[in-house]
Amino acid sequence: MTVSMLINFIDEHCHYYYSGPLHEEIYGVQIAEKEETLIPNILYVTTGWRNVVMTQNICLLIVPEKDISEIVQSLRQNVMKDYQRNINLGNMGTLVTEHTEIGDLCSAAFKIMGNPVCFLNPNFQVCCSEGANSIEADTMKIRQNLKSKSISSGRKILLLEPETAFPYRRMLAPIFHAEGLIGYLYIAELFCSFVSKSDEYYAEKICKLLSTRESMRSRDGIISEKQRFVEELIEGSITDKDLLEQKMKHFGLYVRPSYYVFSVQLEDSFQTKTVVEKLSSLLENPVYEYRGYGVALIGEDDLDIEREEIKSELIEFLKQMNLYAGISNNFSDLQLMPNAYRESIYAVSFRKRLTDKVYLSFYREIAGIHMYHQMEEAGIDVSFFCDPVALKIERYDREHGTKYLNSLVVYICLNCSLQQAADVLFIHKSTLLKHIRVLEERFHINFDNHRVINSLRRTLEIFSYLGKIDVQKLLGNEQ
């Protein structure tokens, strides 16, 4: 790391003076000792000139005495970080020469940059991402946002400032092969702050390594035309309805009254091919690999996902393989598939937030959880939307060691069926009836008023999101 890069890490409020060449490579930082003879490639830090013997190409930083320890520690950490980044860059160079797949190269780029990264094609579609689930979920938003900016195909690295859709800075570095643009390196400032010169330097080095490729797409074999069509649907790249109809006819696909998207996480599976083949058989639809997921487009006529025998066999296989799958809401227009794909992924991620004992999740069942998550990200305290009565019950249980909230959860979830609720709670019917009377008399709940019940249902969902209750466990619905 050069001196000019390194001193950028010094707090702008600290008064310092530097003497020496700015482009000298620095391999260490140390405090200048009394009458010490200084040598090149070391950044020496001191509080005055008087005891320093200067020679040519010496790098000397003078700082206030009260700040010297903190500054030296900070600079040493950044030199070490730069050393590690160089090692990771060298490793990525080795991977490139070995024709490593794009996913592994993306992981290597993430290690270098220290922030989530994506590889984009020239049309800003995400080919691969690494570092944060939110990046995976925002692939369509990334593309739409970048396309709206009319970005030129020049060689300049762009630093995009925070905005409503992306409240953090982003870096966009073009990748060229034989003078032609083949894609972009996209970096999100989520984990650590950008240091412009340093991060731009490493982004440029990564792009140079990637320029040996002909494309940002995977080299893991030629995919079928039909699989590519499904990928185009997921990515929303087919905007012409006539072209969409022509492609459907070409692949022998019939228009269905509605569709679902099924997605299963494959990244932790060591038997991907076997899993994909088995799921294709169970779903009676081809499952395609797509960026760490197995994805299937299911027409309503092809598979009734409500049929218990199909669900049970599917769940049993997922459980056996320790895989988690999600199913989107139904939709009638295939141009809505990008949103449905995200729903199928959200179904898994938000269900896992509640429990890791459910292997097949439906987005319709966690849509409320998704809404509360977005509210929290916007800085809204979701507990404000809880029914005051439910809050009183939760507090009463905590203070008195009672379990009235559990009884309320199960009773409402089972449509106020006294016997069913008692069986699930493993208590006698008369005991549950006593609990219900306490809820009615002490907490004034009218179970015949549908508005009251709806308010309590919403609150129980929020409680579940906040981790106050585990509905799946209480109901014994864990798969």
Automatic annotation (TrEMBL):
Domain called PucR C-terminal helix-turn-helix: residue spans: 405-455
Superkingdom to which the source organism belongs: Bacteria
Listed InterPro entries: CdaR-like_regulators (IPR051448), CdaR_GGDEF (IPR041522), PucR_C-HTH_dom (IPR025736), PucR_C-HTH_sf (IPR042070)
Domain CdaR GGDEF-like, residue spans: 240-347
Stored Pfam families: GGDEF_2, HTH_30
Family statement: Belongs to the CdaR family.
Protein name: Helix-turn-helix domain-containing protein
Source species of the chain: Bariatricus massiliensis
Lineage: Bacteria, Bacillati, Bacillota, Clostridia, Lachnospirales
